[in-house]
Amino acid sequence: MADISNGTKGFAVKQGEPTRVLPAEETKKGLYYLGNLDQNIAVIIRTIYLFKSESKGNEDAAEQVKNGLSRILVHHHPLAGRLTISSEGKLIVDCTGEGAVFVEAEANCGIEEMGDITKPDPNILGKLVYEISGAQNLLEIPLLVIQVTKFKCGGFSIGMSMNHCMLDGIAAMEFVNGWGEVTRGLPLKTPPFLDRTILKPRNPPMIEFEHHEFDEIEDISNTNKLYEEEEMVYKTFLFDPDKLGQLKEQALEDGVLSKCTTFEVLAGFVWRARCKALNLVPQQKTKLLFAADGRKRFIPPLPEGFAGNGIVLTYSISTAGELAEKPLSFAVGLIQQAVKLATDSFMRSAIDYFEVTRARPSLDGTVLITAWSKLSFYTIDFGWGEPISTGPVALPEKPVLIFLPHQKDKKSINLLLGLPVSAMNSFEELMQV
What we know:
This is Omega-hydroxypalmitate O-feruloyl transferase. One of its GO terms (molecular function) is acyltransferase activity, transferring groups other than amino-acyl groups. The protein is an alpha+beta fold. It has helices spanning about 35-40, 60-75, 120-125, 170-185, 225-230, 240-250, 260-275, 320-325, 330-340, 345-355, 420-430; strands spanning about 15, 20, 30, 45-50, 80-85, 90-95, 100-105, 145-150, 155-165, 230-240, 285-295, 310-320, 365-370, 390, 400-405, 415-420. It has 2 domains: about 15-200, Chloramphenicol acetyltransferase-like domain (Chloramphenicol Acetyltransferase, 2-Layer Sandwich), CATH 3.30.559; about 210-430, Chloramphenicol acetyltransferase-like domain (Chloramphenicol Acetyltransferase). Strands 1, 2, 4, 7, 8, 9 and 14 form a 7-stranded mixed sheet that branches. A 6-stranded mixed sheet has the order 10-16-15-13-11-12.
């Protein structure tokens, strides 16, 4: 398994003064409803998109991207507003039309000197995304912050900082692809559907399931101490079709399962390996969380272009001992059960559960897998062709792992994770299997 590292040294970026980009036309003002599925993921997600064209330089890049941003904000006008707290004590958007924050910047090198950005290095990649200084909390951070950085080679990057409460991965990709379309003067392929009240809780709320995704798990293995004492190391591991095929064979060889998806087998394999690498005691409970896309699972399905969070967290729980001792089919089977759990009734129960409890998922003893591997990162085009590379700046929390699409081979997946250095050494050995 290849470790893709980033060897950039002496990298510097000179940032200009931030400006505001307003919607190109007058947009609707007032309060904009955020649903219960939006409330729990109000974290800032920072992503980078690198572009370089053989036939076109970067002289007009910032201006064109900025003009396109102004046009796309007409369609996605809530992103031009600001977060506030509703009378119910929940997050809501005040559609003030203040606009997105936009920054132009210049790097002291060519794009090729960046190395591979699929391994997040916040110290390096963080320079490509503008950070609002002095913000005391999420309410003080604009919902959308964009930095366009020109490189000496004629390429450029778009660094995007967005609050996850506004868009999930699918909606975010529709937004960025749509932004590229209007920048090129094209009509939107997928106009956004903005009405989130279709996912309002029921009245009265009906909690029909046990929602163990919110369970607190006691850290009897003292993992938190390891995180405090050791340096965190971030690495990317490539799973090509051959390796994924081998894992599927391994998961099916004992006949317990008749089939499994790429996501199910990779999630099961990585969950087991991470538990072993952290040397969890056999009795340690461990929880795997991942987002199921509810768009087609809700009854009726969510409208095309649903611009919000249409994802619901589902879960598997085991002990570390069972995961380690039993064959891979055991872990994969647990994940298959979690996938089946995400029905319309379960998802509506989760919406109502938050309404009653205001609970937040606990991440102690937990692995949270974010699957970006099927997202349309490599179809984005602002007029310079598709990105030559793209990825997150950093992982939002220590227990988060991300499955990323591979640029050249759509059937390969890059696994990105962070672990304390001793655990990462063990994890790397387990990846050789």
